[in-house]
Amino acid sequence: MTKFVDVLNEMRDHYQNNINTGVAIPYYPNLVEDSLGLMEATNKYLVADVDANELTDNSVQSKLNDLQNQAKDLSTNTASTIEEELKKSAKELKENGNSASSQSKFKDELMKIKEDAKKKANDNIDKIFAEAEKIGKAFPVAQNLIIVAAQKISDLINDLFTRLVDYIVKIVSDIILWIKGAWDSIVSTFNNIKTWILNWFKSK
Length: 204
Known about the structure:
Elements (H helix, E strand, L loop, with lengths): L3 H18 L16 H8 L2 E2 L4 E2 L2 H38 L4 H39 L4 H31 L1 H6 L1 H17 L6
Antiparallel strand pairs: 1-2
């Protein structure tokens, strides 16, 4: 019999391996046999009762909303931290005259920023799965809903890391050209990323 915690652990390992190896391979979790099926659980916990004008049981919905908001906050904080690190490094590169030695130092700093992004992504996965496990233990019949929610959140964290790495790779490919418009590039890129984070669950 598939166990809730085992599914979560397998999913967490999958996404952290994605992050550590720089890929974004989807994960399709097994569902828990002794929990309600997705349709039945959705009807019980997530579908509004039109006559009563309220959710049938909003306790699970509230917890899932909290989990999604936590994920958005963690992801936004990660993006903001990386943004500030890039601004600081770009400012130092400009002030040092964009010399060959300065560019070499800048590249080293970008690799450190990439590793920082990786650590934050893995930490965020751990935080989300720890909370998901607590919710699942409190609401056993809704465990399949929680598994699906954890999958969507993990995709967000994984995709965010991929976007950050892609941007860093783009910078490294042509530092001389990028540094000319570095500030505008950073601000525009991260404003778009933050908007993307806020809208993530609306499109899922």
